[in-house]
Amino acid sequence: MPILKGIVSVLLLVISTLFWGVPLILLTLAKVIAPGRHRKEWLLNHLCAVAQNWIGLNLWWMRRWLKPNLTLHIPNTLSTEQWWLVVSNHRSWTDIFILFMALHRRIPLPRFFLKHQLIWIPIVGLAFWALEFPFMRRFSREQIAKNPKLATIDRESTERICRQARNAPITILNFVEGTRFTVAKREAQQSPFQHLLRPKAGGIAQVISLLGDQLDGILDVTISYQNPSPTFWGFLCGKEAPITLEARQLAVPEWMLNANYYQEPQHKERFHAWINSLWQEKDTLLGTQTDHD
To answer: Which member of 11, 18, 187, 196 has the greatest number of CB atoms within 10 A?
Structure first.
């Protein structure tokens, strides 16, 4: 029965993607050939509407078909007319849909940092590109040592999305661990946290330096799974154990607004201290929830 449920869930996901893929492709083609930034922004707004409807349709059938055991704690101060930076831990592909269930139409459509390889996923990759999501190359230290210019490619992607973000309210979502948590990855990193990988401060430091005066706040999100090894397939099969999402609103610290992460070592150290402190609180919360489960 769970396998059959998972197959039906995949079919529903494919059908909804194909259905909304038609207007997505047409609008993307129009955006490519449209002259002038004003017309491109008008088409981008319509692409966002298509994406919101695709998300809404998927959430509708997931809530009724999968009936996830989900507990949400969300601030009541959220608005789609505001600018947000969302930072979250990362355990599974399920995280994306859990975040959508919590925040859909409560804040602007989130743009999140993506691995460049995801651009090749049929329809979905096109959607990410058309919606101007920032794609990250994630070069190794050895590659950057051989060609230092590679280090600026990801920064330029972040700068581009932040420049565009000044024109209309936006949400930028960052899984600051950079990859999904596993015990093996934690041990390989020698992470000081029990339930988390080491956070990376560079991305959020750049977003705050470029958008800090416009951000209405930082949403610190903690996603906890009772299942120690959650999978998206298990979620689609309707057999995922209880999931909890805690979101709290933080003000952007004043010192961050004029801090230069890449050029001033003291600011870099301060950003790392801030994100590590945040991650320590998150690790404690996850430990409490795990013990409670």
So the answer is: 196
